[in-house]
């Protein structure tokens, strides 16, 4: 309480320091260093207060301890405020109705009223000179500046501030737009294939997950049929060649080499067929409802 009413004191609490005790190390060399360090601090505190530590009286040591909040004598005690707990006084204007006599009114500070932001009209994209743009790229021109490598407009404002947009019609801009066009056409093809696969799955009464495997099985069987036809034609040609000379024998050997080169393709397809044929074809109405 005494701390609160004192002028200039805004700390809530003070901590009391008293009953000074030394807890020096048990090692003699360390103990001597600690004692010298303590005497050095005491000498510094006294010198800062204008006293000589060697000749200072008890009252002078006590005064230096209070000034610098540093205990030097066991019988002394000091109070040190807790810095992190303080009173914060905030000024408040007086109310006229609280007084029965006229008081000087203070001018209130002018508080600016917030200005409502008006919605800005959308900025129209700058006009391009389409004479420098190929006809197949006109439909892919975005409504924002184009930066190198940024195909999906994912750069932040800070990144864009460090870069320079590509000039419309330049070689780098055309190359960027060609890659953007290829990506969009690829995405469109994937979307169309996905839609066609779903339609085929409904038509064939099978699931969407299995339709691609079924299509692959059909493609592998078609390839196997083509290879069998090619092999049969080569074997038929070998039968029509009479072995009457060395030249014709070499021709037959070349045709047999062609047949041997087809063997790895036969083996690869035949190894895939068992796993592809074990795929369930039809699905139940419950499974179809889950896909929809």
Write the layout of secondary structure elements.
Elements: H1 2-5, E1 14-18, H2 28-49, H3 58-68, E2 77-81, H4 157-162, H5 171-203, H6 208-239, H7 246-277, H8 285-291
Antiparallel strand pairs: 1-2
Helix pairs in contact: 2-3, 5-6, 6-7
What does this structure look like?
The two termini are about 75 Å apart. The radius of gyration is 48 Å and the shape is elongated. Helix content is about 50%, strand content about 5%. The protein has a two-stranded antiparallel ribbon with strand order 1-2. α2 crosses α3 (about 60-70) and α6 (about 210-240) packs antiparallel against α7. It has three domains: about 1-80, no CATH class; about 130-185, no CATH class; about 205-290. It has helices spanning about 1-5, 30-50, 60-70, 155-160, 170-205, 210-240, 245-275, 285-290; strands spanning about 15-20, 75-80. The protein is mainly alpha-helical.
Structural category is mainly alpha
- The general outline is elongated
DSSP strand tally: 2
Mean pLDDT: 78
Estimated share of beta-strand residues: under 5%
- Give me the Rg, rounded: 48 Å
Largest sheet: spatial strand order:
1-2
Give me the strand/helix succession.
HEHHEHHHHH
Question: Which consecutive residue ranges, at least 5 long each, have pLDDT under 50?
Answer: 1-5
- The helix tally amounts to 8
Overall number of structural domains: 3
Q: Could you give the distance between the termini? A: 77 Å
